[in-house]
Amino acid sequence: MSSTIASRPRAGQTFSWFIFGLMSSVTFVGILSELVPSGILPQMAADLGIDEGDVGFLVGVYALASAVFAIPLVSATLSVNRKLMLQLLLAGFAVSNLVVAFASSYTLIVACRILGGICAGVMWPMIAAYGTRLVPENLHGRAITVIMAGNTLGISIGLPLMTTIGVTFGWRSAFAVLGLVVVVIGVLVQVFLPSVEGQRMSKANSPLAIVRMPTILIVLLLTFLSVIAHYGVYTYITLLVARLNLPGGIGLALLIFGIGSVISVILSARYIDAYLRPLIVTALVAGGAAMALFLAFPASTIMSIAGFFLWGLAFGPLVTMYQTAVSRQIDEAKDVATSVQSSVFNLSIMVGTWIGGLLLDGFLGSSNVSGVVWLSLGCFALATIVAFLSRTTLRPA
Where is the Major facilitator superfamily (MFS) profile domain (predicted)? Predict the structure, then answer.
């Protein structure tokens, strides 16, 4: 496709599963670029001569870079053609992963992680807004769901695969393969994605105006609590699996988690536009129930499997739910609004991994992953209450 799209889509415009599937592949490699260290944490720590907390920092610093640079860079590049911008971001992802694959310096690896985080900070809000400009408003939720399904598939399928590659052939091979996959996706994007002109920013849709909106603030609070609840534990999932002594180890845990995630994404694509608030409340309850099972039945294989399944159900639509919610609060330059939400999302990952690390180091008397699980349970409970009471903000389309 080479045509340029600059106007609103017509109400009868068809939904192209191929186009949105290709966009989904971008978020697929985006989430893998962020989380690959989590699956090969022991291998990286041993080879680089650092402790596991330092490897966890590689996830956290990626998220911090995303949070810090998302709003200013999305705002500064709002007028750039969306297809061109996406190509530049994919180039950054490729360089970040390929350099890490061959680097021996921890400092250089951190620098590349920061580069990847910067690209992710722009990509997440940009690609969601890009997709909504290709379909009518009543399909925005579906568009975002399919695009962000790459996030779920990356965690449920991509991360176990990358973990297997990293464990079997060395952790560097996982980054090398990921970098090459990004290059292939970049070629496909160039050939098939439609060109969409950028937009101008106004006082009404500036970041400052957006954060003053009460409905936006509610979505940001829900994002903050939900992300800490999920990622605080997910960053140290290998330690959780070890504590539960789950037969099959991290592979089985990620498989069950992934099955739950895929199921919830499928349901989300079908119902999110009409039932956003019930979907969010249900996902939060499922996440809280999962953490409760991990705490109450740490020696039960059946309960552990049920916990990972429920956690997957809760995690699957995480990105979709809140990007859809924030997108409904503004009509123009949705990239800016979603960049604010994305910044909070990534900052929350950093906060979650940081607090998780403190708890693992004995903060507040905890010296194992159970303290992180308790933190997650508390955040899920608070977020459930907020979501249940937010009838106006989380309205249907």
Answer: 19-395
* pLDDT tens track for 298-353: 989 999 999 999 999 999 888 888 988 888 877 766 778 888 887 788 778 878 88
Q: How far apart are CA 394 and CA 397, in angstroms?
A: 9
Q: How many domains are contained in the chain?
A: 1
**Residue 5: helix, strand or coil by DSSP?**
strand
Q: Which domain holds residue 31?
A: 15-389
CATH of the domain at 175: 1.20.1250.20
Question: Residue 35: inside a domain, yes or no?
Answer: yes
Taking only the tens place, the pLDDT of each residue in 179-218 is 999 999 999 999 999 999 988 776 666 777 788 888 889 9
CB-CB neighbours of 353 under 10 Å = 28
Joined together, the tokens standing for residue 278 give 């019930």
Are 232 and 352 in contact by the 8 Å Cβ rule? The answer is: yes
Helix (H) or strand (E) holding 18: helix 17-39
pTM: 0.78
In a domain, 395, yes or no: no
For residue 111, what are the contacts with CB-CB under 8 A and spacing of at least 6? none
Per-residue pLDDT, 11: 45
pLDDT in tens, 102-116: 998 999 999 999 999
Angle at which helices 159-169 and 171-192 cross, to 10°: 140
Question: What is the Cα 160 distance to its own chain's centre?
Answer: 16
DSSP assignment of 199-261: ----GGGSHHHHHT-HHHHHHHHHHHHHHHHHHHHHTTHHHHHHHHT-TTHHHHHHHHHHHHH
CB 250, CB 159: distance < 8 Å: no
d(CA 87, CA 63): 21
Please report whether residue 265 resides in a domain: yes
397 band by pLDDT with thresholds 50, 70 and 90: low
